[in-house]
């Protein structure tokens, strides 16, 4: 005695076969290649290099480069999920290296400025000491009480008079009298 009719059994077997096939295809289907993540990781690596990470954060830059190479190998092996994960890690390490490089460069610049300030301060102190020594070494001018006090701007003596032009010397006619002795305008 059959509980199921033969056409129902065939339909059931067909449904099971379709389900198995669907699961098999789903297992074979993978995520698309993470090209955008790879490009972003590569851009972040270049930004870290440009910021001087090779000098200021070589370990972090090395980690980022290693993970990027692993991501490239995963891409070639068509392990896209692994490649995406490694690309994200590479990008994060590269970003960390870039930030550390910027911090290192800022510290180096600050140290340079501090050294320059110290040098300038030392020069200023030396100049001030030299000036003080010169002031102490120079004798103070003696004040002579019989000498007249110095005058800043001396007026012309009142007896000075301008003379009249010499007749016949490039002056065709004597100048008109302007109230100044000597006839000068």
The averaged pLDDT comes out at 79
Please give the share of residues in helix: 55-70%
Question: How much β-strand is present in the residues?
Answer: under 5%
The largest β sheet comes out as:
none
Summed up, the helix count is 5
Indicate the radius of gyration in whole angstroms: 49 Å
Termini gap: 152 Å
Notes on the structure:
This protein has five helices and no strands. With 185 residues, it is mainly alpha-helical. The longest helix has 58 residues, at 80-137. It is rod-shaped and about 150 Å long. The model has no long low-confidence stretch (mean pLDDT 79).
Describe the structure concisely for a colleague.
The chain has 185 residues and is mostly helical.
List the helices and strands and how they pair.
Layout: H1 6-28, H2 35-50, H3 53-56, H4 58-76, H5 80-137
Helix pairs in contact: 2-4, 2-5, 4-5
Features:
5 helices; 185 residues; mainly alpha
């Amino acid at each position: 005695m059959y509980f199921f009719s033969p056409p129902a059994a065939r339909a059931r077997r067909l449904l099971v076969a379709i389900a198995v096939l669907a699961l098999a295809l789903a297992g074979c289907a993978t995520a698309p290649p993470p090209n955008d993540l790879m490009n972003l990781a590569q851009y972040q690596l270049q930004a870290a290099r440009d910021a001087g990470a090779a000098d200021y954060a070589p370990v972090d830059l090395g980690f980022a480069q290693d993970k990027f190479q692993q991501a490239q190998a995963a891409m070639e092996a068509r392990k896209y999920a692994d490649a995406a994960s490694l690309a994200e890690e590479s990008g994060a390490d590269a970003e960390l290296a870039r930030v550390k490089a910027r911090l290192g460069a800022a510290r180096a610049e600050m140290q340079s400025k501090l050294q320059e300030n110290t040098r300038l301060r030392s020069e200023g102190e030396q100049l001030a000491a030299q000036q003080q020594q010169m002031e102490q070494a120079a004798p103070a001018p003696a004040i002579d009480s019989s000498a007249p006090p110095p005058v800043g701007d001396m007026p012309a003596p009142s007896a000075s008079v301008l003379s009249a032009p010499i007749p016949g010397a490039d002056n065709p006619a004597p100048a008109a009298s302007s109230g100044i002795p000597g006839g000068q305008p």
